[in-house]
Amino acid sequence: MSVREHREGWEVRWRDADGRQRSKRFGTEEGAKGYDAALAEVSRAARRSDTVKFGRGGGVYSYTTREGVRWRFVYRRSDGTQTSKRGFASERAARDARRRLIEQVERGEVRHTKETFGAYWDRWLAQRRPYLEAGTWTGYATNGRKRLVPALGHLSLGELTVERVRDFVADLAEAVEAGNLAVKTVNNTLVTLVVCLNHAVDDGLIAANPALRVRRLPAAHIEREYLRLDEIPRYLDACSELYRPLAELLIGSGLRISEALGLRVGDLELEDSGGTIVVYRSRKKDLVGSTKSDRFRSVEVGPGLARVLRDQLDQRAELGSGGGQAAFVFVMPVRGSRRSNGRWPSVDPFGALDRTTVSRDWHKQALEDAALRDMPLHALRHTAAAAWLAAGNSLMYVQRQLGHADISTTEHYYGHLERHVLAAGAIATEEAIAQAAAGPR
After folding, report:
1. Strands across the sheet with 68-76, in order?
2. Which tens digit of pLDDT belongs to each residue from 125-162?
3. CATH number of the CATH domain containing 308
4. 249 and 393: one domain?
5. Can you tell me the distance from the alpha carbon of 434 to that of 293, in angstroms, rounded to the nearest whole number?
């Protein structure tokens, strides 16, 4: 065997088992010497042609390229099918990679499936429907139909790498910059993907969830509107007689509108000195489900709101619709004329208030009549938080009243309104400086 320069490249010469001289050309000296070294490890009887796979067995074999000898290994995937990986510069590198990969397969860290993400998504979404509230399931279905399946549906589950998910989120981020998507929409889509792939891990189809390692987009800064203290009486005075008790509840308790509409008589514990509202559920459209955080909480109310709620219960009893402790606190009365608010007798008398009617009609009309700026109905929840902080209550009190799982959420939304802490700190600092300047007494 020999290696020599040949024209504009390098050439390896050797004799095979029948004595015939053979040669192979390479573009680099390194490639030629690597091939010559591989030939030296093989007996002369095995050198029948330059296409023979050299190696000592064990699933590792060499092959030739223009750049020289390269190595590959063969292994069985988690589903039992055989495949190979190529491109290793040495036999040792190929053997080490094969050993590591086989260990990962045996530990269940590397799995193989031919099922596409689109096929799994359809199957997963159908299976999850009985376990999800209607709004949650609809949100998942929308994210899948509009964004996930069109971009990732053709890929097998094994092809969903961290890099692919990052590229997917980057594409959505460009749509945000163009004004076609909101940051919240992108992050909700990523969360949907995380939830779906978590189940794929549980089903044994992938070893790890690649979407867990992809960061959400930073939330856009949003100025949250709310009623100032002097605006609250103006707003309430502009509310209709039917709407005002509900409006006072939203401002005095910080309940979400869905939670307020889901209140039942048995959820109220009222006394002359105040009372407690136990929030168990929320009402969305015609369905009653769990709260947003899937946890119940107790909300303390003052004596004024307690009186309003007792009056509401008295009026509720006068309707004579029954239901006892399970009856809804706020219901739509039967209409007496076209100009009155309520439902016609033939359309579910004493049914729960309609959220859309409250939000788009009664709330908007109250703002307009009070000559206040436009704001969503949810701003009344922010109004409650701002009022509590203005009265000197702590962020922890606000967190518990609103039902935030983490104090950081409360801090993010309302930390800048905790004025009494900031003011006390500023006063204490000035007093300390003044005392230091005066010197020891």
Report:
1. 60-65, 68-76, 82-88
2. 999 998 888 888 999 999 999 999 999 999 999 888 88
3. 1.10.443.10
4. yes
5. 48
